[in-house]
Amino acid sequence: MTETPTFTVIKKQGDIELRDYSPYIKAEVDVTDTSYRNAIFQGFRILADFIFGNNIKSQKIAMTSPVQVEESEKIAMTSPVTISGEDSYTVAFIMPSEYTLDTLPQPKNLAISFIKVEARMLASMKFSGFYRENQAEKAKGKLQHWVEMQGYEADGDFIIASYDPPWVPWFLARNEVMVPIKQDSVNVE
Fold it and tell me: Can you give the pTM of this predicted structure?
C-alpha cells in the first residue's frame, strides 16, 4: 500500500471532509510557461527522476501519494528567489514519513526543494477525472462554496491531489481538491 500523509477526519458531509493533518515533508518543483496538464507531467518527471535515484546518494525513495499541484502566485522578488507567475505551477511529491529534512538525499536537480509542512487543517473534496483543469476548477468552486457555507476561512491556495498513476481509467481515478483552513475559524462540535 502506498503511504499517504496522516490525517484525522474532523467533519464529513458527502464527498467533503474537514481533516486535521500531521506534519509531513514534500519535495516540490516549480514549472512555468506551460498548461496545467503539461505542468503535472513535467513536474512529475522531474520529481520521479529524483526518487528513482537521481540524487547525491543514488538512493531510491519509495513512491507515495498523492501528487500535489498548486498554481504558483506572482510574488515580488525576495531572497531566496521564487520562480512564479502566470501559468506557473508547483508540483509536489510527499516524502515517506521515515525521512527528515536532514536524512533525505539531496537532489542533483537544483530545481527541487524540500518543504516541511506543519500540522494543519484542510477541507477536502473528492472528484473523478484525470489531470483535467476544468474538472479541478469545478471541484474548487464546489469546495469553496462549502467552506463559505460552513463559515470557515481559507488559509492558502487550493491544492489538487492525485492518488493514482496515469494508467488508471479516468472514471476510477481518485483525486481531491483541498484548501487549508484557518483553525480559529472552525467551531468543531
Answer: 0.85
